[in-house]
Amino acid sequence: MRLHRIDITAFGPFGGSQSVDFDALSTAGLFLLHGPTGAGKTSVLDAVCYALYGSVPGARQNGQGMNLRSDHAEPGTRTEVRLDLTVAGRRLEITRQPPWERPKLRGTGTTVDKAQTWLREYDATAGTWKDRSRSHQEIGEEITQLLGMSREQFCQVVLLPQGDFARFLRADAEARGRLLGRLFDTQRFADVEKRLAERRRATEARVREGDATLLADAHRMQQEAGEAMELPELAPGDPGLADAVLGAAAVARATARERLTVAHCRLAAAESAHAATRRALDDVRELARLQSRFAEAQRRAERLQERAGAHHEAQRRMERSRKAEAVAPALELREAAEEEHRRAAAAEARARGMLPGSYADAGAAGLAAAARRAAEELGGLDAARRAERRLAGLAEERSGLDRQECADEDVLREAEAWLAEWDATRAALQSRVDSAQEAATRAEQLAVQREPMRGRLETARTRDQLAADLEQARQQALASEQRALDARAHWLDLKEQRLNGIAAELAAHLTDGEPCAVCGATEHPAPARKVAGHVDRETEDRALAAFQRAEEQHTEDGRRLGVVREALAAATAEAGDAPTAQLEEQAAELEQEYARARRDASALHAAHEELRRAEHERERRLADRQQAAVRAASRLTRRETLEREQEELEAELTKARGGSGSVAARAAQLERQAALLTDAADAVRAAEDAAQRLKDADARLADAAYRAGFDTPQAAAAALLDAAAHRELQHRLDAWQAEEATVRAVLAEADTAAAAQHPPADPATAERAAATAEHRLREAASARDAAARSCAELDRLSARATEAVRRLAPLREEYDRIARLAALSAGTSADNERKMRLESYVLAARLEQVAAAATARLQRMSSGRYTLVHSDDRTGRGRSGLGLHVVDAWTGRERDTATLSGGETFFASLALALGLADVVTDEAGGVRLDTLFIDEGFGSLDDQTLDEVLDVLDSLRERDRSVGIVSHVPDLRRRIHAQLEVVKGRSGSVLRQRGV
After folding, report:
1. Phi, psi (rounded to 5 degrees) for 120
2. Which tens digits make up the pLDDT trace of 941-968?
3. DSSP letters for 257-297
4. E strand or H helix at 165, and its extent?
């Protein structure tokens, strides 16, 4: 990957548009990115990372990209980063625009535009750029695939960050493992460990579940077998459970079969005894039944003899009833004729009673003639009825005209009164519209002043907080400076004491026959001895480390003090010297005035609407007044016409009414009279016809009674039975005959008569004997069934237990195998001698590669003194396999990396970072990294070491690489000619390229 050019607009501290030509900077191989603290050196690297991955490194990435925008940018300038690079042989251009809050095109306020991304590729054949994608996801996947690295890997490999690798160098195994895990993506090995552990727990649960099921079957077998089966006290998962259960089941099955054989024998004996008693009981019951049947037949014969007289009387009554049935039709006909004559006479009397006295003796013909005369007179009243209805309609119409006149008079009065006040109403409404319009204009003016006032107030609060933080930072810096001086003095004292006693320290390593490291002599007659309070190297190293930590803390506190001072100066310049309370009061007054203006302006729309409604109301009332005048003229003409028509109709109706109050009354009178006469004529004719039919019916009835043998019709009627009495009498006769035949048949039976000659039977004794035999049979059958069920259940449970043991065997073997693998990968197995987890083992291999790659450069930077080695020793309870030590060639001893000095720590960290970059690059598929950045740390090196480090970095050009050093060390400006300077100012930072 090689960077060619980057264009930055409104990003970070850069308020305008800035460009960096990496091709020009990379010509010299090494280039320097420098500038004062807070100018934006790291922001250039953030822009590169943002262009590639859409986010910036580490803690600076928060929100949704809104914080990437420069506070110095103009409101209309959009934040944008455009990167031109070559990766995997392809020339690409990536443009990213984060979301930004811009002013609205119409109205006031702001709106948020979404993030935008473009990817273009240069076509060398056509000599033009071609669009490839505008999708965030597609572009992100394309860049990640081409680089072969995630954002975290890129930030560790290409943008070597401040202090990260120094912390990695001194970190414990756990922290070092977390970083290596992110870079080399060993999560899949951790997932393997987790998966094995989950499978072990799942398989163990299945084994325990199978054992629990087996043990449950064993307890059910024990319930079936009773005391014949004893189970050992075993729990699910205990060894030997299956064999113990199967053995106990075999004993229980044998015992159950013996019990079943005994139960079969007892059941056969009980069945024989029960059959004998049942036969005896049946014989006794049959004898008792026959004896009871013969006695009952004798009693029934005696009762028949007692009721013989009543039976003969019923037979005679039935005979007379059959004769009277021949006279029944004539009787029914005579009764119907009599009922009809009675109804007709009553109807005639009622009809004559409703007629005037002049028609009391009139016949049917006279009544019919009078009805026809009344109907003819009624037909002549139709025209008079129509005239009467028309007269009523005229009166209703005149009433409607009167109501309309009253309504129009009310409309005219209301319209005149409302229109008289129109000028005053319109003036008042127009005044409300003008006031609301002025308030809306004032609200817009105040809205423009609100945001600046809020920003100034917020800055003033920040200024006050920074003023308090400045004093705290100053005190902290003084305290850390004093601690650093004390630690340095303590370290120098211990170093002087060690040098004074160095002879004793060297003498401790002398061996007879071995040459002295100082003089070379092989004899050591009087080696120096350690005195009380001797200072060894470890004590001196601890004091040196304490001094270095105190010095680093002092440097950090000084840097923090400078940052607070710069922030306070910037906040004071923006907020001014006005007190925060005064600004808060001004802001509150502005908000109140703005709220009042908004509240007054909110009535503008309502005032416009009310004025519009009032104008529409005026137009409606003018139209109503004009329409009322037109209707009044039309009513006058219509009223005159109606009066003339009314006079003509009244004269016609006076003639038609006669003596009645109205035509309708006269018509009703004639209609009622015609109806009464017609009904009376019909009733007279019906009464005459009914009298003739009654006379004929009497003659036919007398003849029928004589023919049936009765003296009078009344005697025939008395002998006739109704249907219910006839059925009841016939039922009694039939019952007598059936009972007599049944009794004779029973008394004639030979077996019944023979049974009557035997002594009385005793069924109770026979039933008791049969019940006892049946009870013994049920007990024997229950015992046999229980034994059979027990055998069957034991066989079923034994078969299921055997099958369960067979199925559980492979599962138990699988559990043993998975448990061994899970323990081995988790580092808890006895076979894992170093107690290393699988992920730690993989990371240890990667760390070993990193240490080997870093040593090649570390030896050049340290003039061959230091070598990085990886250690797989376990430290306390921590992770094993991720130790990192340094071998000092001057002493030949291996020591912890924390004992390196500040400068040594820097170039060791740098070598480690470059080695890690090589390993990660190879891991990513060998993607070539032609541009690297190193952020800070060179200030801790002396001149000689700085030259050696720069030589190593300069050697990277052998692979056609370019290395950018981010530092504000003044000496580097003399040594490196190609420079990119970041200059900060009140309006934002700018970039300047020098020496290219």
Report:
1. -125, 155
2. 666 666 666 666 666 555 566 778 887 7
3. HHHHHHHHHHHHHHHHHHHHHHHHHHHHHHHHHHHHHHHHH
4. helix 164-170
Going through 144-249 in order, the beta strands assigned E by DSSP cover 159-160
| Nearest residue to 795 via CA among 103, 217, 66 | 217
**Distance in angstroms between the alpha carbons of the first and the last residue of the chain:** 21
Decide if pLDDT at 855 tops 70: yes
C-alpha span between 789 and 256 (Å, rounded) = 10
The answer to whether 708 and 330 have CB atoms below 8 angstroms apart is no
pLDDT at 611 over 70: yes
Confidence of residue 120 (pLDDT cuts 50, 70, 90): very high
Provide the 3-class DSSP secondary structure of residue 679. helix
CA 954 to chain centre: 60
> What value does the mean pLDDT take over residues 826-852?
73
Q: 704 Cβ partners below 8 Å, 6+ apart? A: 326, 327, 329, 330, 713, 716
Q: Is the pLDDT of residue 22 over 90?
A: no
Q: What is the SS3 assignment for 33? A: strand
Q: What is the mean pLDDT of residues 856-883?
A: 71
Virtual CA dihedral for 307, 312, 315, 319, nearest 10 degrees? -160
Percent of all residues in the chain with a pLDDT value above 90, rounded to a whole number: 3
Torsion of CA 432, 437, 442, 443, to 10 degrees: 100
Q: How far is CA 806 from CA 80, 196, 201, 240, 376, in A?
A: 71, 25, 21, 14, 119
415-429 pLDDT tens trace: 788 778 878 888 887
Residue range 582-599: average pLDDT?
80
**Residue 897, exposed/middle/buried by CB under 10 A (0-12, 13-18, 19+)?**
buried
Give the integer Cα–Cα distance in Å for 439 and 436.
Answer: 5
| Whole-number Å distance between alpha carbons of 557 and 403 | 101
pLDDT band at 484 (very low <50, low <70, confident <90, very high): confident
Q: pLDDT tens across 337-383, in order? A: 778 888 877 777 777 777 776 676 777 677 677 777 766 666 656 66
Say what the pLDDT of residue 7 is. 95
Q: What share of the chain is helix, strand, coil (3-state, %, to 5)?
A: 70, 10, 20
Q: How far apart are CA 92 and CA 120, in angstroms?
A: 6
Contact, 888 vs 865, CB < 8 A? yes
How wide is the angle at C-alpha 591 spanned by C-alphas 587 and 593, nearest 5°? 115
User: Rounded distance, CA 970 to CA 25, Å?
Assistant: 19
Write out the two tokens for 167: 């912390």
Pairing state between β 931-935 and 962-966: parallel
Q: What's the whole-number average pLDDT of the chain?
A: 77
| 447 contact partners, CB below 8 Å, separation of at least 6 | 108, 594
Rounded Cα distance between 910 and 932, Å, is 12
